Amino acid sequence: MAWLVLGQGIKLVVDQGFVAGDESMLFNSLLLVLVIAFIGSIATYCRFYLMVWLGERVCADIRKALFSHLVTLSPSFFAESRTGEVISRFTSDTTLLQSVVGTGVSMALRSFVMFVGALVLMAITSTTLTLYVFIAVPIILLPIKLLGKKVRYFAKVSQDDVASMGTLIDESLHEIHTLQSYNHEDQSVESFDASAEQIMQSASKRIHYRALLIAMIMFISLSSIFIVAWVGALDVISGAITPGELAAFVFYAVLAGASIATISEVIGDLQKAAGASERIVELMNTSSDIPIGSTFPDATLAPFEPIEKQPLNVNIKGFRVNEQALVDANKPILTLHNIGFSYPSVPEKQIIHEVSFSVMPGQKVAIVGHSGAGKSTLFDLLMRFYDIDYGEILIGDSAQKTISTYDIRRQFALVPQDAVIFATTVLDNIRLSNTTATKEEVIEAAKLAFAHEFILDFVDGYETQLGERGVKLSGGQKQRIAIARAILAKRPILLLDEATSALDASSEKYVKQALDSLMTKTTTLIIAHRLSTVINADNIIVLEKGKVIGQGKHAELMAASPVYKEFVELQLS
Ligand SMILES: Nc1ncnc2c1ncn2[C@@H]1O[C@H](COP(=O)(O)OP(=O)(O)OP(=O)(O)O)[C@@H](O)[C@H]1O
């Protein structure tokens, strides 16, 4: 509004100072114009600050919403989408929205007020001249309509290309070890260059259409202003309007023209942002194929206690179902009844066929079978990362499908084959499974996992930063951290995927001791690769192509199952 008032100042300067030759009036007008400019600048500061702040806020809120949605999605979503692409939604797409809200909308708002104000003041100054301007407006809007669509389309294409590049960077840098060991750097650089050029190509198309849009609008609006100024100059000569009025009118016409140009540019930006938000919304609307489940929809089922009330020392005989009842030591803690499963991405390939077995509280059950037999898949099914196609899984007496995923998962402590370490301190890595644990409890768990000694050897002890993916640890150390994590979780059922990677004899000894100390406390299901693990198991399940082809103790299976016998002989040899 201050800039609009400036037009009136100009009128005063021209008519009463300049044309009338009044010096003191000229000076007063200058003062007035300076004050208006000062007010306008302060207003600009406020507008800029508030709008850019708002842009950042919107961006932060979208990122927060997106992340909290993503962590609820099931593994099948991540199996099908590429992480780099998802990361690009966070970075480039939200940044685009941020700049549109922060800068674009702010400029559009200013331009809109200016445009309307300028039109009103133009009409007051000269109605006829304003009518001429009105004829020009639809001509300006035409290219916006025609070219805007193209801009939007190519904006989406180039954002997609940026996302693919994100995937490429993510994969290459995470797996840099493998790439370098096979001297694959040049090929990686080649694919990256191709990806960067692809972005450049789609961007140039977008830029071309946008540049064309801006140029056309500029040409049409400037030509209109010149024509109107010419008509106005004729009016001044004929005495219909004063020179000051013409000056103010041209000033307003330029303001209005510039505002329209800005608005059209922002519309281009908005179209680009629409592409980005479409992709964000798409991601937000992906729902997990595993319902998180409200806790205990069926009131007749004995509810598990809320986690705060869960006693830290879980009874090895089973887990608490509610305050009154511990699971009966004579009843299975886990029952798989005739289950079948195929991955949602490959529904035609059945991975698990009619598997049935049960696990008693405190038992140590080993699962053996060839690579690809479906052992890890069974673990995923127990924790309900996927839903089974048929059959039933019972946890205690409750059907797995009737329990919330939160409650299912807090019955299990998983030690995966490849221990996962996060880029944080040793303390936080262990505490991941039980965030309320004290440092003393963490140390106790680390001692039980035979990790305490090597942790103390680090300069910063438990506060040592482990680096991305635990690059600062050896294989055996990583495993012991993962075991300490599982001990600290104090969960009733331990799922253990025995590492196949060879550790040196002393590491192996430590890891084995750590595992033994963990297994005595809980019910354990272990995917076994070593004879020493299976020999003492209470029950051994032999899995072959997703089917249970034998179960029993070591001696029974040696006599009854050729596959098991082969496993044992391989171990012995
Ligand atoms: N996300 C997935 N989507 C589709 N198929 C999968 C997926 N994960 C595993 N599979 C397939 O399921 C089968 C069983 O895999 P699983 O990982 O359970 O085997 P495993 O017995 O644990 O093998 P290993 O001992 O080598 O780890 C394999 O044929 C594998 O190709």
Automatic annotation (TrEMBL):
The chain crosses the membrane at residues 30-54, 107-125, 131-148, 211-234, 246-267. The keyword Cell cycle does not apply. Pfam families: ABC_membrane (PF00664), ABC_tran (PF00005). The keyword Metal-binding does not apply. It is a multi-pass membrane protein. Keywords: ATP-binding, Membrane, Nucleotide-binding, Transmembrane, Transmembrane helix. InterPro entries: AAA+_ATPase, ABC1_TM_dom, ABC1_TM_sf, ABC_transporter-like_ATP-bd, ABC_transporter-like_CS, P-loop_NTPase, Type_1_exporter. It is found in: Cell membrane. Residues 1-272 form the ABC transmembrane type-1 domain. Residues 334-570 form the ABC transporter domain. This is ATP-binding cassette, subfamily B, bacterial. It comes from Brumicola pallidula DSM 14239 = ACAM 615.
